[in-house]
Each structure stands twice: as structure tokens, then as C-alpha cells.
Write a structure and sequence with these properties.
The chain has 151 residues and is an all-alpha fold. It has 6 helices and no strands. 71% of the residues lie in helices and 0% in strands. It starts with 5 loop residues before the first helix and ends in a 9-residue tail after the last helix.
Length: 151
């Protein structure tokens, strides 16, 4: 039995777009600084979810702290997209991940927390998205033939 909400359907659609962009790209994860930025975004997004899951959410709502946190994280996404401006597919991935983060932030803003079930599913989806980008690109993994040599 599938009780998918419209939000989950939209999120699945965005995930499908992310995967399509990723698989249509060339090998773009060679730059160590870029990989470190992407890993930091992943960790920050997952921590945001952990922090705002109902079991971990603070008893009283701190709007200014929330706004500050969301602003800081949003700035991280913006800076990462700008830093990867010449690597179109990676920049697009970061921009799409930022949209997903903004959706999570909006949900927390509205409810002041995320349900444990939503948080668990969301973290799995985020982990899968980033794993696709961060995994070493191999012809067998992507179904593509790479013209980039490895040393």
C-alpha cells in the first residue's frame, strides 16, 4: 500500500531529474575542493534534518536561530554553485539540491519539526543523490564510456 503525498511525488520527480542530469554528464568529480564542498553540503543538509526531527527538535521554537541557520546553509549552496559555475552539471546538481533543502526548510518553518518517518525517507533520498555524484565514475556504474583517463 502506497500512501505517497503529493510532496513525495514531486520530490521523486526532482530526484529523477537529478539522476538524469548526473548520468548525462561527463566525469566532473575530479576537483578535490569541489568534492569537499559537495560532501560538506551533504553533511550540513543531513544534520539540518536530524536537528529538526520531532524527537530532537527543541521544546521552544527559535525563529531567529532557524532563520540564521537556513540563511547560512543557503549561502553555502549559493557559494558552491558559483564555485562550480564552469562545471555545468555539478552546478546544476548543487542548485537542485538547494531547492530540495529549501523545501525541507519550508516544511520545518511550517511545522517546526519533521516527522521521524519523513526525516528517515528524506535522509535516504539525500544520501542516494549525493552518493551518485560522489561515487567514482566508472563506465560500468554509469553505463557510459568515459574518455577521461585515470592515473
Amino acid at each position: 500500500m502506497n500512501n505517497s503525498s503529493p510532496h513525495l511525488s514531486v520530490l521523486r520527480g526532482v530526484l529523477a531529474c537529478l539522476v538524469a542530469v548526473l548520468f548525462s554528464s561527463c566525469v566532473t568529480t575530479d576537483e578535490p575542493q569541489s568534492l569537499a564542498r559537495v560532501q560538506q553540503l551533504q553533511s550540513t543538509h543531513l544534520t539540518f534534518i536530524d536537528t529538526h526531527t520531532s524527537a530532537a527538535a527543541p521544546a521552544s521554537w527559535d525563529q531567529s536561530g532557524f532563520d540564521s541557520s537556513v540563511g547560512r546553509i543557503s549561502q553555502m549552496f549559493t557559494q558552491a554553485a558559483e564555485a562550480d559555475s564552469k562545471v555545468t552539471d555539478r552546478r546544476k546538481f548543487v542548485e537542485n539540491s538547494s531547492i530540495l533543502f529549501q523545501g525541507d526548510a519550508s516544511r520545518v518553518q511550517k511545522n517546526h519539526f519533521l516527522s521521524p518517518g519523513y526525516a528517515k525517507n528524506r535522509k535516504t533520498q539525500i544520501q542516494q543523490n549525493y552518493d551518485l555524484l560522489l561515487a567514482p565514475a566508472t563506465p560500468a556504474a554509469t553505463g557510459a564510456v568515459s574518455s577521461v583517463g585515470t592515473n
